[in-house]
Structure formats: structure tokens, C-alpha cells
Amino acid sequence: xxRIFYLALAAVLILSxxxxxxxxxxxxxxxxxxxxxxxxxxxxxxxxxxxxxxxFLAFKSYSNFIKANAGTYEIALREAGAAESTDPxxxxxxxxxxxxxxxxxAQGEPGNDFDMIVYETEDVAPSGKALLHLIHAIxxxxxxxxxxxxxxxxxxxxxxxxRSLPAAEGLYDLKIVPTxxxxxxxxxxxxxxxxxxxxxxxxxxxxxxxxxxxxxxxxRMYLGSVNVAAGTPPIDxxxxxxxxxxxxxxxxxxxxxxxxxxxxxVAIRKNGTAADSDPIFQTNIALPGGVAANLIxxxxxxxxxxxxxxxxxAYWGAPIISEGRSSVNVIHAAPSFAPVxxxxxxxxxxxPIAYQDIGSASGPAKTYQIKVADNGxxxxxxxxxxxxxxxxGKLHFVIxxxxxxxxxDVLRFFASPFVSLRDGVN
Length: 426
Hints:
The protein contains no helices and 35 strands. By secondary structure, the chain is an all-beta fold.
């Protein structure tokens, strides 16, 4: 089972603070992105040329690309929440050239080898292919090789360097291993779906003892929404103050959109209320490229705090590209119910899926006997899907929710990420 998580970002982009960064007239421009990849560093506020651009940038968080005039810039880091007048804990100058794309990574250990290393990267994939950037950001770690099906793809990526390579669209069993060795496996990235025209940045981070990774996808993605908050009136959904989905009623799907990947401020309001009115709920979400994502409204519309309050989360499944295979993805959107598991022929095939989480299982395209039952009590079946056909090359989504009387309910649909987000409701 592969568990897929949505990402709710802690760092908030302060758009009004980009006055000193954004060009004021037609000039030669480049762009840069910031990534926090120091496992031992705390959350920080980020300033560029004296203007605060991020609050509370946490480990494994990252920014959108920021367009700026060619020139020299200074980044200053302050402790999260510190006053602008306090001394920064770290500063670094960098030069941005016209048409240049920079990825700036906070890495290393504070008080030892901490740095913000500037990597030159590309933001456009070769025609008909994907582009992979691999950044080694674990201090004191040896050089590493990238393998696919245990064959070396590129070798000896050293700390503080980036390796870039094109890749054909496909599903890859990627591993990071010490240079020249097959073991130990530093990171197992098996089942990595690579989609053409998307740029993927893999950051190898963490510590030598506990390595981890980040994957950032930049490019086209498909976006839809559905409202499963029982008892709620129709709602409007905004991305960065733009109304994108209007009047979504309970158990209704939105139209489909193609969007650019990136960080979005997502808000829900009652249908027809002013765009500048207080939202029912607002959060920041990163939507990666190369996925079919769903914004799902859930929770209790009468609750304004706690785990059951009305909210919006983003979920996606990795594209199923390998021939003859499919996947089922169960989203737990029923606030009154305990964690559940997916059963196939009465055997659990996932770990527990708690409220707001998503669990996924994949296999050959065929007919399955699928159930969703309480974790620890498989006889308490919440959803029964007998003779459920998983179609080849499709991502099947099952939303476990509850109706207006509080009883278990379900919505189902399947997706084809290379044509449209939602082919049909089954």
C-alpha cells in the first residue's frame, strides 16, 4: 500500500511584500525559488532585500517561483515571528541573471555547516519528456547514485550539487544508493510516476541517520472540486482571491480545470457572498504538477473550530501509467467516524485511514471485492463495493463521507490524468 498525503503548507506568501522584488517596468527578468531542506533548522521568516516575503517557512516547505529583475539580492533569515528590527540569523547574497532560474536551498546544520546554496535549474522540460533535478542536501553524507530497476541512471551526486536529466513518461522504481553500491538503500522512491512536460525537483534531505526526500512538480495539473459537507448550502471556492468554482452543492462535482502547479491560498465562502467577505475556512495548499487533484469540502458546517469544522483539503493520486494496472484511492471525509481500512476479499490491504487522510492500493486491472471497514473491526463494514471493476490506466476515487442524518455515504469517480480529471462517476 502506498499512502498519499495532501500538503497543507505552513509558510504563507505575503504578496504585498514583493514590492522590492517584483519588476516595476519591462526589464530583463529571472526567477528564483526558496526551499527549506535543513532538518535541524527551525521555522524562519524570509526577507529579500529587506522586505519580508515568507512567514514561518518550515522544513520541507517551499515557495513558488518569484519573478524579479536581473540583479543582486540579499536573503535574510530571522526566527519565525521575530520583529523586523531584530538581527537576522543568516544572510546571503545572490546574483540573478536575465532568463535564469535559480533554486535556493536552505541546508546543513545551524551553527555548523548551514548555508543557502544557489542552484541553477531549468523550469521547462524538453518537448515530450519530463525533466528531473536531483539535489543532494544531506550534510556529511557520501555521494549517491540514482538507480531505476537497480540500474544506475546517474552516479556520484555529491552534497551541495544538482544533477539534471530528461526522462520519458512512465512509472519508475527509483532508488538512491551510495555511489558504487546497491545497498544500503538511502531512499526508496519506487512507484514514482513521471509525467511528460513536468519538471520534478527531488531534494535528498534529512540526516544521515534519517534520510528523507522532497518531490516538487512544476507544470500542468488537473483540478476539480466536490462538496461532501453534509447540510451545507452551496459554496464558492477561491484560489488566490479568484473565484474558480461557483455554487458547489452537497454531493456535487465542479467542472474541470487545467491549472498551473504552485502554492495557492484556498478559501471557501457561501455561494453569492462578496469576494472580500470573511471566508468560512481558508488555508494554503501546494498543488504539484502532473497530478489529478481534487479540492474536497468536508466537515460540519455548524462547527467553527476543532477537527470537525468545515474545511477544504486537496487530494490526488499518482498517475497510473504502467500497462494493465489501476488503483483505488479512499478518502476519509466522515468526521463522525473512526479510522477505516480498505478490504479486498475481506483482507486489509491498507494501513488505517483516519479522517482527512487518503489511502491507496494498486493492482492489475480487474474486478475486485472491495469493502471499507472500521480499523480493528473488519466486520463493521461502512462501504460495500462488490464486483468493483478497476479500469486499466484509471485512478479510482472513493470518498467515504456521511449524509445529513449522519449515516455512512459514498461518492465514487474515476480519473484519466492525461485526458481529463474525471471521466465519469460510477
